[in-house]
TrEMBL record:
Recorded coiled-coil stretches: none
Transmembrane segments: none
InterPro entries, per database record: Metalloenz_LuxS/M16, Pept_M16_N, Peptidase_M16_C
Natural source organism: Cymbomonas tetramitiformis
Gene Ontology MF term list: DNA binding; metal ion binding; metalloendopeptidase activity
Any GO BP annotation: protein processing
Pfam family, one: Peptidase_M16_C
Peptidase M16 N-terminal domain residues: 93-195
Record-annotated Peptidase M16 C-terminal domain positions: 241-307
Protein name: Homeobox protein PKNOX1
Keywords per UniProt: DNA-binding, Homeobox
Amino acid sequence: MVSKSLLPRVASALFKVSPVMSQKRPVAQVAASPTVAVEDPTAFGFEEVKTEFVQEYNSVCTLYKHIKTGAELMSVTNEDENKVFGAVFRTPPDNSTGIPHILEHSVLCGSRKYPIKEPFVELMKGSLNTFLNAFTYPDRTCYPVASTNLQDFYNLVDVYLDAVLHPNCMSDEQTFEQEGWHYELNEVSEEMTFKGVVFNEMKGVYSSPDSVLGRECQQAVFPDNTYGVDSGGDPVVIPELTFEMFKDFHGQFYHPSNGRFWFYGDDDPNERLKILDNFLSEFEARPVDSKVQTQKFFPEPKYVIKKYAAGDSEATGEEPKNFLTVNWLLSEDRFDPETDIAMVCSLPTPAPNSVQPVVTAPPSLPARA
Ligand SMILES: [Zn+2]
């Protein structure tokens, strides 16, 4: 898989753009940029929500809303030849069957315009991309691509948009079985086993102590909302997933009304609107309930003890290994000053494999590729 280093930049800019939009500057002042301002976005089916200049990135950022479907587009124009596109859907699961993760794998296995088996693999080999990947977070699924070559970039955007909006896996149960789970029996005398790309991947994840720790912390701190289940998929639960549930999930969340799109770089911002509108205008707006509920505070501290796979310490004579973490459920609203100070002072100093203060909050939750 390719490097994930670009993602935090893409994701954080997409979801936290307002705090850095401090200094306004008219679009026209970016004279050196080869990009041009969009005169009339309504001609391309969009309305402008707001435009601001972000000095730190020397970028003009415009937030658009697609008039027909309500899809949001963050269009960032600057002189960076490394053009980036991202399609993001909020995909909060309510169980640990790994639907969002299996879907992330499956939509990249052929689409209406690109009915080949593995367009993603072909792109990895043949494209001039500088970044190409997909990520499942506990609450959203992201499809970012980047390229410095304009035509290559447009091709990538076309493949990705077609993949997320018109994937062949919705009618091809074999893709679901291949990427999700299926039974495998090579010899009649052998025992039947479960197989599947995501199933196997998650077996590996569940045997890693670090990932067990991270997941248990997250689920202990957020037991009542989507962060209380595993969007990646618990191998014990994955075989409960049916093809019907899988299709319903795509129908529910992979809709423009639940989508956020992102363009960045020196490409023509008019063309961005045109490309997106071509895909989005096929859909009708509809309400999508994908909001993540806030976790209620606990009346008292909780203590959770879990086990993880490890060697037999009695046989090896080694000391049994343990992890200990202290997690805080924080409020979106500020605490009063006294509690704020008490929180800071109460955080212990981390030491390897002993005490790890973990402040788990949605924006820092890990992604699964
Ligand atoms: Zn995966």
